[in-house]
Structure to design on (238 residues):
């Protein structure tokens, strides 16, 4: 009798980083049948961040197509070239999604077994995770909504600048006093220069508060930034 194929269930879980070096946004951690199988074979690995899930469905990190895709599914906080990463090939075969051809370039050579998922369940879970906001803390929501407001305003382009990033900044217990910063949102932008010219980079350091609704804080920060030439009102130039 042929061995019955095991069909696993994929769950994508947002995890807010514990270490400031991992980045400001949550990673989207894949669980297989409720188990973090990637953690078992690549314990230092970090999954793709939630910012990688904001584009069209075909651009999502775990998107599946008829043609096999080899992806880096977890990487270290440093770089893959430094401490190695975990790779997998993802493809669709009929009503199944298959993860196989694993490669672990870290010091550990262990890899998960080949995994099979039901295509409908798999794609439904990807779509759910891409729009999931339940994990957000207030600082995450403020950063996300502020980025939308600034990006749609066209304000930075008026001054010959480009909005580089808007990201949450969390309090980090245990950091040296020289590195510790209160919770808030960092807005970074740079001025567009000609080829070969020095690029000026600016930043707004915005402090969030606990006793004011998220929407009001977003509006307050938006009004602050759009009130004048941002190059003159930014907190610091780097």
């Amino acid at each position: 009798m042929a061995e019955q194929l095991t069909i696993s269930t994929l769950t994508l879980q947002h995890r807010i980083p514990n270490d400031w070096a991992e980045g400001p946004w949550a990673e989207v951690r894949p669980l297989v049948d409720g188990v973090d199988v990637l953690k078992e074979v690549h314990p230092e690995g970090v999954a793709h961040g939630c910012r990688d899930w904001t584009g069209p469905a075909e651009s999502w990190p775990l998107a599946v197509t008829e043609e096999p895709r080899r992806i880096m599914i977890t990487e270290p906080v440093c770089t893959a070239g430094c401490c190695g990463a975990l790779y997998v090939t993802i493809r669709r075969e009929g009503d199944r999604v298959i993860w196989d051809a694993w490669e672990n370039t870290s010091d550990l050579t262990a890899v998960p077994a080949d995994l099979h998922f039901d295509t409908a369940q798999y794609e439904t879970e990807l779509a759910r995770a891409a729009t999931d906001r339940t994990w957000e803390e207030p600082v995450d929501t403020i950063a996300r909504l502020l980025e939308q407001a600034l990006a749609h305003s066209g304000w930075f382009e008026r001054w010959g600048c480009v909005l580089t990033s808007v990201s949450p900044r969390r309090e980090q217990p245990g950091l040296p006093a020289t590195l510790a910063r209160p919770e808030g949102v960092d807005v970074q932008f740079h001025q567009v220069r000609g080829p070969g010219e020095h690029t000026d980079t600016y930043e707004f350091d915005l402090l969030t508060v606990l006793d004011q609704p998220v929407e009001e804080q977003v509006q307050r920060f938006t009004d602050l930034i759009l009130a004048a030439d941002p190059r003159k009102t930014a907190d610091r130039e780097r």
In short: The mean pLDDT is 90. Residues 65 and 91 are 6 Å apart (CA to CA).
